[in-house]
Specification:
The protein has 318 residues and is an alpha/beta fold. The chain has 13 helices and 11 strands. A 6-stranded mixed sheet has the order 8-7-6-9-11-10, sandwiched between helices. Helix 2 packs parallel to helix 4.
Length: 318
């Protein structure tokens, strides 16, 4: 067994996973952390990562380096997704991360993000689930992965996520009805093209991963404290999503903070995430979403484990 550390630098959240990986690919978690840093805040209007947002992300990464060292990680990889992909000043951010932490961050494409998410989702699936559509709703992009035995996976990365949709359409506090209608129309237009590429979903299970969907599972169960064992493989119904949507729309951001299960820092973005999931389920005829607490962060580690001699390692000072 080896100890691996993986960091996922997303548009909204930065996540760390440290785990031992056995010879059969099984993960034994040692440490896990995540922080909402909003790296993509203001990116859509300016095409630039903002200085304050970059500082939040770099400070978080710097604070995690002693944790990685204490865990005895032999290999470490760090990836960046939508916000860094889209920023015209991404090299400034990546250089600052290298200076502050020694990490060489790999900026991955949307399709590569989908591929690694698939690795993570598959590692956490219950037995009997073979044909599925994995959905990863992020801050800046949403990944669709259609998988079935004997078929090459279909992977689509949509440049739409909770931060983009909120900043584009859902600006009110509380939101107005015309803003909600605009967001729905925008998603429906996206999904028309995606539906043509994915084809029939008959006989497929929808599997949802990442923070938006796990938060919705916590909200449906009204959990006061996040409990992974109650989230992983939870079945979130279409009916429950409609109820959550009705709870969110009339509330201000401050009022949403009182809702059980809603992670602090998501109060202005959770409506966009709920709307995206709801539109996907209705467009493809899914009555429920199987929630996975496994996803990109696990896939990042599995990918690193699978590689032969190609790893991103911390500088010798670690």
């Amino acid at each position: 067994m080896g100890v691996y550390a993986g960091i996922d630098i997303g548009t909204l959240t930065v996540r760390l996973l440290i785990a031992r990986i056995e010879s059969d690919g099984t993960l034994q978690q040692i440490a896990s952390e995540r922080r909402i840093v909003r790296l993509g805040e203001g990116l859509q209007a300016s095409r630039r990562l903002q200085p304050v947002a970059m500082t939040r992300a770099v400070d978080t990464l710097r604070s995690w380096m002693p944790v990685i060292e204490q865990a005895g990680a032999q290999h470490i990889t760090a990836i960046a997704t939508s916000a860094v992909r889209d920023a015209i000043n991404r090299e400034e951010f990546l250089d600052e991360v290298k200076r502050a932490t020694g990490l060489e961050v790999e900026m991955i494409s949307g399709k590569e993000e989908a591929r690694r998410s698939l690795l993570g989702v598959q590692a956490g699936l219950p037995s009997g689930i073979e044909r599925f559509l994995a959905l990863d709703i992020g801050g800046g992009s949403t990944e669709f992965i259609k998988a079935a035995p004997g078929h090459r996976a279909v992977m689509i990365s949509l440049d739409e996520g909770v931060v983009r949709l909120t900043e584009s359409c859902l600006k009110g506090d509380p939101v107005r009805s015309d803003e909600v209608a605009s967001a729905k129309a925008r998603m429906r237009l996206h999904l028309e093209g995606i539906a043509r590429d994915l084809g029939s979903m008959e006989g497929y299970q929808l599997v949802g991963t990442a923070g938006t969907i796990t938060t919705l599972a916590a909200m449906d169960q009204r959990l006061e404290t996040y409990a992974p064992l109650r989230i992983h493989n939870y079945r979130l119904s279409l009916e429950a999503l409609h109820r959550i949507m009705e709870e969110l729309v009339p509330r201000t951001h401050a009022e949403r903070r009182t809702l059980p299960g809603l992670e602090a820092g998501r109060e202005d973005l959770i409506l966009a995430g709920t709307l995206i999931l709801l539109e996907v389920m209705e467009r493809f005829g899914f009555q429920e979403c199987l929630v996975s607490d496994y996803g990109l962060r696990e896939g990042v580690l599995i990918d690193l484990w699978q590689r032969t001699g190609v790893v991103h390692t911390k500088s010798s000072s670690l």
